[in-house]
Specification:
With 31 residues, the protein is mainly α. It contains 2 helices and no strands.
């Protein structure tokens, strides 16, 4: 599951960067 979560986090980062790096960072901090 760790690998799946890691991949999901990467997807969130990419999505966040696509819509707004600031939002991506916020999601990372929240996670």
């Amino acid at each position: 599951m760790a690998d799946t979560k890691s991949l999901q986090d990467k997807v969130i980062v990419v999505t966040g960067a696509g819509r707004g790096i600031g939002r991506g960072i916020a999601l990372l901090c929240a996670a």
